[in-house]
Amino acid sequence: MPVELNDTVPLSWKNATGDNETMLQNLQPNILKGHVRDRLHILLLQFAEGPEGTAAARAFLAGLVPLMKSAKTALEEVDAFNQHGTQGTPYVGVGLTNAGYGRLGLTGAVPSDQVFQRGMRHPDSLSNLSDPDPVQWEPGYQQTIHAVVLVGDADSSPAGARLAEVEALLTDSITVLARETGQTLHDAAGRAIEHFGYVDGRSLPLFLAEDLQAERDTMDGTSVWDPFLPLGRVLVADTAAPDPTTDFGSYFVLRKLEQNVRAFKAAEEELADALKLDNNDRERAGAMLVGRFRDGTPLTLQAEAGADKPVMNDFTYASDHAAHKCPFQAHIRKTNPRGSGGFEPPEGERLHLLARRGQTYGERAEGDLPESGVGLLFMAFNSELGQQFEFVQRLWANNAGFPQHGTAPQPGLDPVIGQGSRLPQTWPQAWGDDESQEVPAPEQAVTMKGGEYFFMPSLPFLRSL
Ligand code: HEM
């Protein structure tokens, strides 16, 4: 059976045979399902010019393969952990930029996505995304990046040990342009949160039959919102690999997004004050910015936190079409309108969904409200960057007119990640009520500090170098 990228029946990895089985053995982990980790190291690399640089780059990448595992092994490890508590092994992932393929001398076989080929620093991407001028990015991201290496584990010490093994392969011909260390933040209940304090990673597209079954068994179900996406929304044939019918990769977005926690907390308070929300209702201000309460309760489902066991994800905005519960501009409604965006039929909208794999970075003391130095290492896998990541940031988050809903005032920018000029926005005064009030838009509290597009190739490609 060939690998069916558009199959509407999800692939069961446990029952995969033939080309599907080979595909899973040849694919890097973390693409079809997020790799479990509390600690994640990221190295951004540049290879030296000339034949020596090319040879060193090829030797380094091929040398990484014994430290890596396949998607299949990673899935087996998760299963063994769930069944017997057996600890898994660290994750090592590697991606190349267009310039990186050039340094390997592989210009003919470069993955074909135009957005990938031009890179995140290209003027078209900068203007599409309304990103800051690269001279304001962190120094490492201003250079020409050739490769990224990710090293992660559920615990810091195996992650550190595997990082040391990766670093031992570096030579004088390879420059480390930047290093990032991601560390999962937890709330008092042990849930993974981002720096503004909200539970993250709840709504993710699912590609595998076993993960869909788990969502049905352990979450609130999949009868209203179907998280299934076909493999083709994330997998791309690896044309530089020995056999592109079984060797696949994925386009990987990395963006360092600094979070000004003090500014975001102030925005929550200012919105609560402007709407004169009373004590019991003040938490709703932040929930209106995000679309979920801190504990993950979707604002469109209820007026207060508390629907956190399990965290709900089986919802759409069908019963909230006028946005009297969850505002149109709330982060999760902007970035996944779940069929209510108004410009495309629901099936068209689903083509823009992307597989997020973000990780928080930066340390802070209890009670601290840092203005800089902490944030999100935003990461996501895509099969078409222009239709997925760039589409969502440009035409949804940064577009004041999205979602479209008749004659009512424009929603304005996504208050969390929107980049561009921020005009006043209207917010429902009471949950479910049609009275709304215009309030100056919250200050931008997320700043892009650098990023790049990569292709995460198949393991056979790396072995062939
Ligand atoms: C969901 C925070 C950046 C796209 C969420 C959630 C939070 C959050 C708290 C709710 C948890 C969940 O539904 O999984 C943040 C913060 C960011 C950030 C603090 C920056 C510092 C981005 C970016 C994008 C994005 C850059 C894409 C361009 C999404 C999507 C969802 C989501 C698609 C799920 C929406 C749904 O399916 O309901 N984010 N996010 N986020 N975010 Fe972000």
TrEMBL record:
This chain belongs to which protein, by name? Answer: DyP dimeric alpha+beta barrel domain-containing protein
Native source species: Streptomyces cathayae
Alphabetical list of PANTHER family matching this protein: DEFERROCHELATASE, DEFERROCHELATASE/PEROXIDASE
What is the residue range of the signal peptide feature?
Answer: none
- Coiled-coil regions listed in the entry: none
List required co-factors. heme b
- Read off the InterPro entries from this record: Dimeric_a/b-barrel, DyP_N, Dyp_peroxidase
DyP dimeric alpha+beta barrel domain mapped to chain residues: 61-183
Which residue windows are transmembrane per the record?
Answer: none
Keywords in alphabetical order, please. Answer: Heme, Iron, Metal-binding, Oxidoreductase, Peroxidase
Q: Spell out the residue ranges making up region: Disordered.
A: 403-426
**Stated family:** Belongs to the DyP-type peroxidase family.
